[in-house]
Amino acid sequence: MIKPITIYGIKTCSTVSKAIKFMKANEIEFDFVDYKKESVGTDKINQWLEQIEIKVLFNTRGTKYRTLNLKELNLDNIGKVEWMAKENYLIKRPVIEYEDRVIVAFDEDIYRDIFL
Length: 116
What we know:
Layout: E1 5-9, H1 14-25, E2 30-34, H2 42-49, H3 54-57, H4 63-67, H5 70-73, H6 77-86, E3 95-98, E4 101-104, H7 108-115
Parallel strand pairs: 1-2
Antiparallel strand pairs: 1-3, 3-4
């Protein structure tokens, strides 16, 4: 049985929109988890971190990171996970679960290699 593809993010995010558009254009079915409606907790984040580095997942470029002044806190990895669980907007988007993989961000070439 093929596991469904799950895309995590927020619909108003431009990179999430690109990922969704790619999936629809290529008739690839997926489930969407909207951070505004369904929060992702530490268990899920830690599950992702078994496959990807925290620097790939933790968004230091977003508005939320700046408005919370997190740079000044000099967070360790545990602190970063706690903040991502509290504020899902600190998670880079989109995060895609596919089979046993975790893919972060949108790159059309990588998506073509993986999904087509």
